[in-house]
Each structure stands twice: as C-alpha cells, then as structure tokens.
Amino acid sequence: xxxxxxxxxxxxxxxxxxxxxxxxxxxxxxxxxxxxxxxxxxxxxxxxxxxxxxxxxxxxxxxxxxxxxxxxxxxxxxxxxxxxxxxxxxxxxxxxxxxxxxxxxxxxxxxxxxxxxxxxxxxxxxxxxxxxxxxxxxxxxxxxxxxxxxxxxxxxxxxxxxxxxxxxxxxxxxxxxxxxxxxxxxxxxxxxxxxxxxxxxxxxxxxxxxxxxxxxxxxxxxxxxxxxxxxxxxxxxxxxxxxxxxxxxxxxxxxxxxxxxxxxxxxxxxxxxxxxxxxxxxxxxxxxxxxxxxxxxxxxxxxxxxxxxxxxxxxxxxxxxxxxxxxxxxxxxxxxxxxxxxxxxxxxxxxxxxxxxxxxxxxxxxxxxxxxxxxxxxxxxxxxxxxxxxxxxxxxxxxxxxxxxxxxxxxxxxxxxxxxxxxxxxxxxxxxxxxxxxxxxxxxxxxxxxxxxxxxxxxxxxxxxxxxxxxxxxxxxxxxxxxxxxxxxxxxxxxxxxxxxxxxxxxxxxxxxxxxx
Length: 517
Ligand SMILES: [Ca+2]
What we know:
globular; binds calcium ion
C-alpha cells in the first residue's frame, strides 16, 4: 500500500513538474542586425540557403507580415525590451540614450523567477539592467577580435564575433539547471555593415551570379524628394571599409558612405588594425587579388554599380552564412542537452535591409524592405510546426508574447499584442488592420532619410515625410509591390486617402503619438 502511495506521489510530482515546465518555457530570443528577409531561404531567398533559420520556421511559425515600428538598430531594441513605441520609451534614434530604469519584459521575467541574460550586441548606451548576467559588445561591435563588456569588465577576445557571441551564449546555457527557467537574448552584430565574413566563408558565393533586383536602377521619379535626397545608394558606399578595396597610400575614400562627412578610410584602418598578423595575412590573401582586379578593370557607370552590388552582396551573404551556422550550433546544443523542446525560440532581426532594391543598402525608410523584418518562432509546447501567419505583426509584440508564454501578466501600458493566439491553425479574426510607423533620425545621423510616419494595411501604405519637407506618398502594394509609383495625387484616390488618414489618426491617438510638424 505504502509503495503504491509512494508511486502515486511520484507520478503526481513528475506530472506537476512537467506541467510546470509546460507553463514556464525557457526563452531564447536570437536577434541579428540588418538581416533582410530576402537573405533567408524560408522567406524565399534565391541567393542563400539558411537551413537552421528555416528549421525554426518549419518546426514552428513563420510570420510573413512582420514589421518594425522604427527601422533603426537602437530604437528597435528599445521597442522590443519595453513593448512600447519609441516616443514612449524615449529611444527615438541612434543619438538617444536608453533610460535603463524603465520597465522591460526582462525585468518582469526576472521578478517572476526567471534567470535572465543578454549576450552580444546591446547598442543602447546605458548598462543593461534586469539581467542576472550580461556580456555585451561595445556600441556596434566589430567583426573580428571584439571587446566584450562582461558585467562591467572589458575583455578583448580573439576570433570571429558571430562565433564568439555564440560561444558566450553556450556558456550561459551550460550554467542552467532544470529547476529554474531562463530567458536569454542572443544578439549578433552580423550582418551589420561593414560585412566582414569569417575566413572559412571567404569565396562562398564567388561562383554565384547574384540577381540584380528589378528596381536596382531606380531613378526615384514618381516619388517625393525624400527618396531622391537620401544617401543610401550602393554606388556611394565607402570604397575602403565597405568594398574592401585597397586605396592608394594616403588617398581619401571617394565614397560618401552616407555618413555626413564620415571618413571610410579611417573606419577601415580601425577594423583592419584589429587583426592579428595571421588574420591579416588570410584577409589580404583573399581580398588583395579582388582589389587588384578591380583597379585593372576600372569599371565605370552601370558596370561600377553592378560590381559594387556584387561585392556588397557576396560579403553580406557570407556574414549571414555564419549567422545561420551558429544558430545550428545553438539548436544542436539544446537538442543534445534535451532542452530544445522546453525552450521557446524566437529568431528575428532588429529590422529589414535593402539588398540593392532601389539601388540601396541600409534601412530607415518605411518601404517594404526595411519596414519588414524576419520573424520565426519555435515553441513546441504551444504549437505544432509548419504554421504561417499573414497577420500584421510588430517587433512591439515580442514583449507581450514572451510574457504571456511565461505566465506573467502583460502590463497595460505595453503597446503590443501577444502573438500566442496566432500560433494556431484556426485563423485569428480579431486582429489589427494597420501598423503604425515613425522614423526620426534626421537631419543628423547617417544616410539623410527624412523624418516620416505612416500606416501600412494589408494592401496600402500611406507615408508622410515631414520636418524640412511636407510630402505624402501612397502605395497600392497589390498593384505596385515594389513601391515605384506614388499614387497620392490621383484624384480617384481621395476617398481611400481620407479613410487611411482617419485610421492613421486613430493609431496615433491609441499609441499617444503626436507629430510636431
Ligand atoms: Ca540594425
């Protein structure tokens, strides 16, 4: 009798523990920097195969319409942490300083008994708060031999940053015990500019023809001055730090680099100066012949533009290959440790990126390539795999999603919505019909993209550029998915514009945003 009772108690204990695990998943948010959906095979990329990101999507859910509220590194991170728009969390552009006293989902998870950690890029100026452990890169970080600040102490590590950040993340996982759930933010610097691949990925795309985007030779007619006055064209990239060309001794970089007077050669000298002798030899062995061939060929006009696009893309994609490979390392680790199926994994980027569309690199604009961001989630305790959602979702939604998964109440002042209801084969009917966007970094900062805000519905996009300009743009994404024709001034669209403006007003009211024109 006693034995039976003990056995029953054991069964109850195990099922309670299982129930507990089910209610309280471990959480890993992997975020990269500037990773365009067009460079992920799960999102239809023809240029690269990303089997590990694809695995998360295949065994989980892929959000085909995920967007950011402000397409810039620091602001997006602040939105994710706080679940609030930039004008509420105070981090509007990359000149901002994050007020680290404010509430974040990480602090709430920690209060609820989670072990919390962040590893990799931080980029919010002030120290991380709410983390039991933090080990972050300084500012933008570097591709090689990065400086990590681990709980306040700075150490330079030798090696390739995408690998090293993953190494540090695996060390955090090594310390975990089954009695306490954890939440870790794993933030890669890659594939942020200036796209320096790992040695083992050199030449990976050299035999590929990278297709030119349809809009590569865009002349920005039929758009407002905002599209013409940017400094985001690939042809104006830095010859040194972006293109890795060896400039003649003492020569100035002829590219503007979008940098308001920034000196590309100086940036490159700093990156190149970090290499060990051995690394420098490996680097030169690959890039010097490329540089020599460029000067010999001396391309001009369209040929130059194409050459620069190819160089940019081959380096960018090689950096993505390392990101995907390292996600594979993480998934394998979790699988080996039998932690994979009680961990809720999110993969996203801090925003999208232009990969030659409109002739551009960088982000900022509310156009599809940078407004859109990759978002996939694997959460087997909650859903079967193979799901896709077409709903309009935002980086603003990550905080409430994670909190709900952890069984923590979402504070009423968080402005996003939990995405858990979308993890189902039953379509979610009650969902938002438009997303609100607001970009601020102008006239200072990089790339000269004017301040703007707007609304995107499933079919239309209305944008207002303001500050030193007063220009509206309207796109029909069904008829014109590449956003080449601004149809704002067409008389027949008056009713549509009025209705979109009403919806935009409503969103500004809901999110407490006011625009000072
Ligand atoms: Ca970014």
